[in-house]
Design brief:
It is built from eight helices and six strands. The protein is α+β, with helices and mostly antiparallel strands and 291 residues long. It folds into three domains: 7-73 and 123-147; 76-120, no CATH class; 151-287, no CATH class.
């Protein structure tokens, strides 16, 4: 089954007073290219998160963002009341000596003095990490489902375009019958006008015509192209996504289409070839975005 490299998934959950969101975006890339942005309390888990992403997503450009709101509410704050009281007594003594009243907001001033308040940043707890880890897995699963759904759309597009190429190949097969007759008649007429058919060896003439037609024969190319199209069908219906394999098959399809076009030497067939190339180019564009 075809899987796209374009995907998106997000989850949102709460832990105590904190709100946490996880978002994953994936785009086309030949290798695994991961960019992670997490809050400071998750920095120690960044390698573990990256490994989890690589094991599940495998390939593509991956952007992952974990945001935590209201995290400061979980910081641990301790007040050194004894030190604060000493600051207060010192300020009070000073105010008496200089005959100044203590300001109304004296407490807010004392709190800002050194070592009165000690703030210990929130540290990751095992319970929270288990919750975050489960939500990361869920977000990856949502993203993977998005990629599978997108791959299904691409699959339908491939089937449509390959079917169009196959239909056009049938038209070429019919046109090829008349093409051979036209070439033989054109050669005969040219010789008759220039030399006269009564002045040439008919056996030699037939041999030369056969030799010339063999050089313009496109039967083998048509057969190979039909087989490549069949192989493309089989590959896109396999259980695993085979983007690189499909790219190689597409190259072979393009080679046979080009060879038919160059050997056919027929305007009507050339028009069909152009249409086939157009469908093939659209397939190649989509192939760059599948896994």
């Amino acid at each position: 089954m075809i899987k796209s490299m374009t995907g998106f998934g997000n989850t949102l959950f709460s832990y105590k007073e904190m709100s946490i969101s996880i978002e994953i975006k994936t785009l086309n890339s030949k290798q695994f290219d991961c960019n992670i942005r997490v809050p400071m309390f998750l920095k120690s888990k960044e390698f573990e998160i990256r490994s989890l992403l690589q094991n599940k997503i495998e390939r593509g450009k991956v952007d992952m963002f974990i945001n935590a709101n209201n995290i400061n509410s979980l910081n641990k704050i301790e007040t050194n009341t004894e030190l604060a009281y000493n600051y207060y007594k010192s300020i009070e003594s000073l105010s008496q000596k200089i005959h100044q009243k203590l300001p109304i907001d004296i407490i807010s001033t004392i709190i800002k003095l050194p070592d009165v308040l000690t703030i210990t940043p929130f540290e990751l707890e095992n319970e929270l990490w288990n919750i975050i880890n489960n939500n990361i897995i869920e977000t990856i699963d949502i993203c993977e489902k998005y990629r599978m759904d997108e791959g299904l759309n691409i699959l339908h597009d491939f089937l449509k375009r390959i079917d169009l190429i196959e239909q056009k190949l049938k038209i070429i097969k019919e046109l090829d019958k008349d093409r051979v007759i036209k070439i033989k008649n054109r050669i005969s007429k040219s010789i008759e006008n220039e030399i006269g058919l009564d002045k040439i060896d008919k056996n030699r003439f037939e041999q030369e015509v056969i030799y010339y037609l063999e050089k313009l024969d496109i039967t083998e190319e048509q057969t190979r192209l039909k087989n490549h199209l069949k192989f493309f069908y089989q590959t896109i219906n396999s259980e695993n996504s085979e983007g690189r394999k499909l790219a190689f098959i597409t190259q072979e399809i393009g080679r046979e289409i080009n060879t038919i076009g160059s050997k056919a030497n027929d305007f009507n067939i050339q028009k069909i070839i152009v249409e086939m190339k157009d469908e093939l180019e659209k397939i190649k564009e989509q192939l760059a975005n599948i896994f």
